[in-house]
Sequence to fold (575 residues):
Amino acid sequence: MTTERALRTVDMHINVGPQHPATHGVFRMVLEVDGERVAGCTPYIGYLHRGFEKLAENEEWQEVIIHLDRTDYISQFNNELCYAMGMERLLGVEPPERAEYARVILAELNRIVSHMMFYGAFGADVGALTPFLYAFRERERLQRLFEAVSGARLMHFYFRAGGLKEDLPEGFADELRRMLPAVQHGIDECDRLLTQNEVFLSRTVGVGKLAASEAIAYGCSGPVLRASGVREDVRRSDPYSLYPTLDFDVPVGKNGDCFDRYWVRLAEMRESVRIVQQCLDRLPEGPIRTPVPRYPHFRVEPGEIYVHTENPRGDYGLYLVSKGGVQPYRVKLRSPCFCNLMALGPMLRDSYLADAVVILGSLDIVLGEVDR
Amino acid sequence: MADLDEQSQPTPSEPAPPARPVPARAPAGPPPGERTPVKPTAQALADHLALAWPDVEHHARFNFGDIELTMPAGQLLAAVERCRNDPALAFDYLMCVSGVDYETSIEVVYHLYSYQHHHHLTLKVTLADCDRPTLDSVTAIWPAADWHEREAAEMLGITFLGHPDPRPLLLDDDVDEHPLRRSHQLVAVYADRPGIVEEPDDD
Fold:
């Protein structure tokens, strides 16, 4: 290091993005590099800012769900679940049991879909293009199921305050039961394909380390936090829906490096399969929606709530304020990616420039959610 | 959209229909947040705060089982320092910072969590001066506040004193409006639906 310090001359600024395949969207960072090493990083966000929070103030309560699909557009069911739960608590209604089970099944399947997306993209970030194809094959299987459920591939608009828009399609449980072993097999295959690969290991192990104390200080959550060894999961620490009754583990990493962040997500997919399996075994028949009044009779009593769920990317929180009208008075979204991205600077410091893409990829950001 | 299509939509040419009567709801009781049982962790926290914070001016209430403190802006720094450093509180995770424009005042809300004690706390600061809302930055205590405060600053026009990097975050540098102020109106997309959006006066 001393020789490097002695040779230090002029720092160079390298602009990455906003249009760059490695940024997974429209994200820009200016890297300050000293030779091969990154000395500093200034992130610029907001290229995808659509004013979700302002739009939500001008929509009727139930309609806001449409916009939530478009915040984190890879884990739509999870977003919808968070908002529906917040509205239900404000309204003081409980969804029927079948709806609860359906929601948890869909949210966990969505976690698998989202982590598959990460798996493929992360492989590509490290230079392995084949995993991408495998990941998308697995993802597609579940996407088709989602399409059968909600009629849409991505923007589902399926959860409501009080339950679901409509019942699960006929034969859903049987189809999913048939599909689960294949999903499990797909995860194992992906695992075998990449995890032990020597080049992959040399690109990720020990790269982009984030200490637990730093992860906590920057408000990181989800796999990014757990990879640093903090066993914290909203499904366990602030339990909601059916999670207290379900048996699943919360995988944690040790070193907080890129490999651990990858490994934690892979392990989470297996836990999600376990959760789905348990829910399928117990999925009851019955009503799918507790009736609530419709617009323009739909009113939410004055009050406020902070509700959060464990999304694939972390702690997804919504601060909902009602003044008793047909619309929310304020909707504030606490985006997990937004907070995880704050830790990018400390993670990049003193890393190799070539690793910057890997480190950014290991955060699994969705810019739709960062920028809202 | 199936929910909405079932409602008859008045055409823009017709006069606005009289407001429909709102069906009677359950008898007005306490607000929903106060009907939820208080969590044991929140009760323990409330007891501790009542003893340990006699000198910090604050008002406490329970909302959805968790404790919520409202305090004047001057008390914020003293309060957050204790939140972070008092071993009985140990709030190490700043989950969210939200700004809310109540038109007569602006409120900044901090949602805190402790990984050690597994308890939640909501801190609220009311800023009476809507023209120049000013508040101390908490970035020195929680680095996580950095972007949240930058966002609240540009969206609501709040000045955070002592923020290390007060540049705009999500908006362009030359936007001089604060979109999340209630006075900032969106273009009326649903002008034909009563009670949703009022048309701005000026054309």
Q: What stands out?
A: Residues 34-161 of chain B form a domain with the Beta Polymerase; domain 2 fold (CATH 3.30.460.80).
